[in-house]
Amino acid sequence: MAASHALIYGGAGALGRSIVGQFRKAQWTVTSIDFTPNTEATHNIVLELSAASDLDKTGRDVELKVGDVVKEQNFGAVVNAAGGWAGGALTDEGLYKNVTLMTAQSVHTSVIAARVAALHLQEGGLLTLIGASAATKGTPGMVAYGLAKAAVHQLVQSAAGPGSGLPTGAKATAILPITLDTPMNRKFMPDADYSTWTPLETVAEKIVDWATGKDAAENGGLYKVVTKSGKTEFVIV
User: Fold this and answer.
1) What are phi and psi of 7, to 5 degrees?
2) Spatial separation of the C-alpha atoms in residues 197 and 226, rounded to whole Å
3) Which domain holds residue 81?
4) Which GO biological-process labels does this protein carry (predicted)?
5) For residues 61 and 9, what is the distance between their CA atoms, to the nearest angstrom?
6) Quick one: which H or E segment has residue 173?
7) 96, 145, 194, 223: the active-site residue
8) Domain count, the chain
9) What's the CATH code of the domain at 34?
10) Does the pLDDT value for residue 1 go beyond 50?
11) pLDDT (tens digit per residue) in 36-82
């Protein structure tokens, strides 16, 4: 696919910034959606933090603002890099709050990204959402996180199916990291084995390779990201 326009939800976060940077390196126009602007992006859609948990309000706001940005050029790729983490078992006093937070950060953003893709993705374009390797099975110590990420996996497979609303030839994929090498993870896990952590640039490069046709993505594919001794593989679950 020729250089085009990419939309990155969560484009001001650690992973989002890396993805924005890789698309810009490939000379794509890039629109970032986040609560703060990314100066490296071509366009920025800045959201209201106060409405983060209101899916209908945030979704409608994004649709309106995306419509102003798209105009005559639809997206070649739509990526949701937004998310978060919260631990806790079913007995945790913060369970309800954490489920609400994880749903807003991972599920709501993914639903909005998927709907924008259905409305504004080019034929043959790419939709990529960020899931989690841990959510392919039970997560008793982080119930809210696993619940939200498992929903993202289901959304990708629904989007990949016939009649989902995605344009002809479009592909929906999910990236399922084990641990990403982010400044926040290094801060809270200073003694970890970083050789098993996946660099943000590696994930960003894979998404850009899919979007540009340099690498083939499987429609509906849930790609577990496995890094060992500094080498990374993307394995379909």
Assistant:
1) -110, 125
2) 8
3) 5-236
4) L-phenylalanine catabolic process; tetrahydrobiopterin biosynthetic process
5) 13
6) strand 171-177
7) 145
8) 1
9) 3.40.50.720
10) no
11) 999 999 999 999 887 778 999 999 999 999 998 887 679 999 999 99
